[in-house]
């Protein structure tokens, strides 16, 4: 069983804000149109997302970006054509969560194992499957999840229109209605790890 060292979310890290992230599409219809156009040019959309693990009160928590009262997502995003998955994930995390001016080579992200691959069968559905459904010959998106841990100290800077929250595993478990199939599966995906909990005030 692999051991991961987790640091306390509230005492180990500092937080700032930066300019809001502009939405590329004003409506869902516009987003679907853009995704279809990109699919025609590039094929299956490839995304990478992070399961960033910290702790509060000696219990594993997962970092999520909250975009509204009811919409949550894992930090990450779309790869560029031909981009390496780990490099792309570091790039997206640095862009979304690090202070302005931070270079990817100076980022704190410790990319671990690939623990899950998910497939979106069509643009009209937000549903992802941990396999390609038999009747789908051209899945529209492939999403890969990597475990990410953090060093003892780092600084987050989150766009003003987003909120970075630490959610306990017991809140995610079997809670597909609130978090969706991918995020609610995380407790099972990382159950193979053993955790060591550290806090700055314990040193």
UniProtKB/TrEMBL annotation:
InterPro entries: Cleav_polyA_spec_factor_su5 (IPR016706), NUDIX_hydrolase-like_dom_sf (IPR015797), NUDIX_hydrolase_dom (IPR000086). SUPFAM superfamilies: Nudix. Transmembrane segments: none annotated. Residues 44-172 form the Nudix hydrolase domain. It comes from the Eukaryota. The keyword RNA-binding applies. GO terms for molecular function: hydrolase activity; mRNA binding. It is found in: Nucleus; Cytoplasm. One of its GO terms (biological process) is mRNA 3'-end processing. GO terms for cellular component: cytoplasm; mRNA cleavage factor complex. Keywords: Cytoplasm, Hydrolase, mRNA processing, Nucleus, RNA-binding. Belongs to the Nudix hydrolase family. CPSF5 subfamily. Homodimer (via N- and C-terminus); binds RNA as homodimer. Component of the cleavage factor Im (CFIm) complex. Component of the cleavage factor Im (CFIm) complex that functions as an activator of the pre-mRNA 3'-end cleavage and polyadenylation processing required for the maturation of pre-mRNA into functional mRNAs. CFIm contributes to the recruitment of multiprotein complexes on specific sequences on the pre-mRNA 3'-end, so called cleavage and polyadenylation signals (pA signals). Most pre-mRNAs contain multiple pA signals, resulting in alternative cleavage and polyadenylation (APA) producing mRNAs with variable 3'-end formation. This is Cleavage and polyadenylation specificity factor subunit 5.
């Amino acid at each position: 069983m692999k051991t991961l060292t987790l640091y306390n979310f509230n005492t180990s890290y500092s937080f700032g804000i930066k300019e809001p992230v502009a939405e590329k599409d004003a409506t869902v219809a516009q987003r679907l149109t853009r995704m279809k156009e990109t699919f025609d040019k590039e094929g299956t959309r490839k995304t990478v997302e992070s399961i960033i693990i910290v702790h509060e009160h000696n219990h594993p928590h997962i970092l999520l970006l909250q975009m509204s009262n009811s919409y949550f997502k894992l930090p990450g995003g779309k790869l560029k054509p031909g981009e390496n998955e780990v490099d792309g994930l570091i790039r997206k995390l640095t862009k979304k969560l690090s202070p302005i001016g931070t270079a990817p080579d100076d980022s704190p992200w410790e990319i671990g194992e690939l623990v899950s691959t998910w497939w979106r069968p069509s643009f009209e559905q937000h549903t992802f499957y941990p396999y390609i459904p038999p009747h789908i010959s051209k899945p529209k998106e492939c999403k890969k999840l990597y475990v990410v841990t953090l060093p003892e100290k780092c600084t987050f800077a989150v766009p003003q229109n987003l909120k970075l929250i630490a959610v306990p595993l017991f809140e995610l478990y079997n809670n597909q209605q609130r978090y969706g199939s991918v995020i609610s599966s995380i407790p099972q995906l990382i159950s193979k790890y053993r955790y060591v909990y550290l806090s700055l005030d314990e040193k």
